[in-house]
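Entry for the shared binder. Reason: the reviewer on the internal report wants the predicted structure included alongside the sequence.
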Amino acid sequence: MDIRLWIWVFTAAIITAIYVILIKYYVKTKNHLLILLIILTLIISTYAYYRVFSSKDIGVGYTLIKALSIIMVTLSGIVLFHEHVDAKGYLALFLIIIGILLLAF
């Protein structure tokens, strides 16, 4: 894959992960200013998805974005919210990484 496409895939995945994290913070704090950030992340992620889908098949592009964002959200949950992941969860993350590598190369 082209490096520019990878940049857009990672951008979409990161922004999607940030979106989910902001929702979690909003649920915990009820800080209404977070709603504006959530809307902003939706706008940015929509553009990033557009860039990925204009360069790659939707099946591969969407799968890569979602797989990467699942990894990022899970790791963020562990680090930011002290959530617990058991051995089965770590195995699932490992299999997601294998799937990303198979799709990408």
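Summary line for the report: Residues 3-104 form one domain.
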